[in-house]
Amino acid sequence: MSDIAFWVIVGITVGSSFMVVQSKSLLYSAYALLFTFIGVTGLYIFLWADFLAVVQVVVYVGGILVLIIFGIMLTNKITSVNISHTSMQKSMGAVVVIAFMGLLGYMILSTPWLVLSNAEPSDTTSAIGRLLLMDYLLPFEAVSLLLLGALIGATTLSRKDT
Amino acid sequence: MTVDTLINWFATMGDFPILAFILAVVISGIPLFLVMALNAMIAVYVERKVSAFMMDRVGPMGQGPGLHAGKWGLLQTAADAIKLLVKEDTVPESSDKFLFKMAPYIIFIGAFLGLAAVPFSSSLQVADFNVGVFYIIAVGSIGIIGIVMAGWASNNKWSLYGAMRSAAQIISYEIPAGLSIIVPIMMAGTLNLQELIIFQSGTIWGILPNWIIFNNPFSFIAFFTFFISAVAETNRTPFDIPEAESELVAGWMTEYSGFRWAVFFLSEYANMLVVSGLAVAGFLGGWQSPIPGLFNTGLWGLFWFMGKLGFLIFVMMWFRWTFPRLRVDQLMHVCWKVLIPITMFNIFGVGIWKLIFG
C-alpha cells in the first residue's frame, strides 16, 4: 500500500518537474511547480517529517510560488498570453545532466545510509523547536538577521528616489 | 472517528490494504463534502435573511412552492442551486481554456483540505494531525494559487486586478493570522487541535470556562486580531476589494458562470467554516461546553462546536452588512501597521505572562 502511494508521489514530483522544464509557457511552468512542491511535501510525509511537510506547503506554495506567479504576471502585458521560454544548448545540457546524475548516483550508492526502524516518531515539532532555540540558537538568529538585511536591501533597491 | 481509525478497523476485516484505504477515504470524505454543501446552502439563506433584517427588509418570502420560494423563502437556496446547475457554462473565447477549467478544482481542493482537520467534536475529525493548526494555515494558501489562476486565465482586466488584489491581501493577512494563532499554541504547548481543545477544559475562578480567550488579556486581544485577519483571508466584506462590485464587476470570478461559479461560492463558504473552526478550536474552547462540567459528553460536543461556529459565521455576515469596504491602501495599512505590531506585542506579552503565571 505505502509502496504504491510512494511511487505515485514520486511520479507526480518527477512528472511535474519535467513539465516545469519542458513547458513552453512560463506560467504553465509555474503552475506545474505547484505539483512538484506538493509531491515533495508527500515525500516529507513519507519520512515522518510532518512539521517539515507543512512548512514546505507554507513556504513554497504559499510564499515562493505565489511570488513567482506575481512576478510573471506583473512583468508582462495581459494580452501576451503566451510568455514562452526556450531551451538552448540541448546537447551540452544533456552532457552536464548525465555527468551530474552520475555524480549523484555515485553519492547515493557510496553513502552509508542510516536506516531508521519503521516506528513512527511521536512528535517532531517539539524536537525541532528545542534544537532551533537551544542548540542552534546562534545560527538561527544569524540567519534571521541575514534575512532582515536582505529585506531592507530589497526595499532600498526597489524604492524610487523622491 | 478519524481516517486512521477507519483504516485500522478495515485492516482487522481482511487483508485488502488498497481497498481499505480507498473505502476509508471515501467514507470520511463524503460527510465532509455534505457538511460543505449543507453549510453553503444554509449560509446562503441565512445571509439573505440577515442582510434583509439589517437593512429593514423582509428578504426572501413566499406562500408556497410554485408561487414563490416556499414558506419564509426557505426554498430560495434550492432555487438558487437549480439555477446555478442549469445555467449555461460559458468559457470566454480568448481565455486560456485549460487553466480556466483547472482553477475551480484548485480552489475547491484548498478549501476541502482545510476542512479535513477541523475537530467537529472529540471524536469527529477526519484527520487528527500532530501539526493540525499549522496544517490548516498552510493549506489555506493553496486556494490563492487557484484564485490567481482563475484571474489570469480569464484574460479579462477585472479578473486580473481582482486576482492580484486577492493574492496580495491573503498573503498579507496570513501573517497576522499566523502570529495570532501562535498565542494559543504558546499557551497550550501543542500544535494538535484536539490537545489544544483539551487544554481549555476546566474553569477560571470557578465561573468562567477556561477558554484561551478568557485566559489572559493578551489572548483576549489575539482572538480579535485573528478573527479580523481570518475575515480578510476569506475575502469577505469589509475586506472584499478583490471582488468589489462597484469597481471590478466580480473580481476574479467575473468570467465564470454556472457550476464553476458555484464551486467558487462553495469554497468561499467552506473557507469561512475552516477559519471559524480554527478560531473556535484555538480560542473558544472547541467542543467544550460553555457551562463548565455540564453537557460536555458525546454529541453535545458537536452541538457546542457547531453552535460556536454558527455564531462566528453570523458575526462575519454581520460585518458584511454593517461595515463599508476598505480601500486598498487602508487594507494594507490595517494589516502591516496596525495588526502586525499588535500581534507581535501579544506574542511578547503572552511569553512574559506564561513565564510569571504559567
Q: Briefly, what is this?
A:
The complex is a heterodimer of chains A (162) and B (358). With 162 residues, chain A is mainly α.
Note down, in words, how this protein is organized.
- The complex is a heterodimer of chains A (162) and B (358).
- Chain A has 162 residues and is mainly alpha-helical.
- Chain A folds into 2 domains: 1-85, NADH-ubiquinone/plastoquinone oxidoreductase chain 6, subunit NuoJ (Four Helix Bundle (Hemerythrin (Met), subunit A), Up-down Bundle), CATH 1.20.120; 124-162.
- Chain A has 6 helices and no strands.
- The mean pLDDT of chain A is 82.
- With 358 residues, chain B is an all-alpha fold.
- Chain B has helices at 3-13, 17-54, 76-86, 97-115, 132-139, 142-153, 157-188, 193-199, 212-215, 217-233, 245-248, 258-283, 299-322, 328-357; strands at residues 203-204, 208-209.
- In chain B, 47% of the residues are buried.
- In chain B, helix 3 (76-86) crosses helix 12 (258-283), helix 4 (97-115) packs parallel to helix 12 and helix 12 (258-283) packs across helix 13.
- A two-stranded antiparallel sheet of chain B has the order 1-2.
- Chain B folds into 2 domains: 1-86, no CATH class; 88-357, no CATH class.
- Chain B is globular.
- Classes of the chains: A mainly alpha (162), B mainly alpha (358).
Strand content of chain A: under 5%
Task: Write the H/E string of chain B, N to C.
Answer: HHHHHHHHEEHHHHHH
What is the assembly state of the chains in this entry? heterodimer
Number of domains of chain A: 2
The total strand number of chain A stands at 0
Whole-angstrom Rg of chain B? 21 Å
Q: Looking at this structure, what is the CATH superfamily of the largest domain in chain A?
A: NADH-ubiquinone/plastoquinone oxidoreductase chain 6, subunit NuoJ
Strand order across the biggest sheet of chain B? 1-2
State the secondary-structure class of chain B: mainly alpha
* Biggest interface: A-B, 25 and 32 residues
Q: What can be said about the biggest beta sheet of chain A?
A: none
N-to-C CA distance of chain A: 62 Å
DSSP summary: helix tally of chain A: 6
> Architecture of the largest domain in chain A, CATH level 2?
Up-down Bundle
Question: What's the gyration radius of chain A in Å?
Answer: 20 Å
The CATH class of the largest domain in chain A is: Mainly Alpha
- Low-pLDDT ranges of chain B: none
Please give the share of residues in helix of chain B: 55-70%
Counted up, domains of chain B total 2
The parts of chain A where pLDDT drops under 50 for at least 5 residues are: none
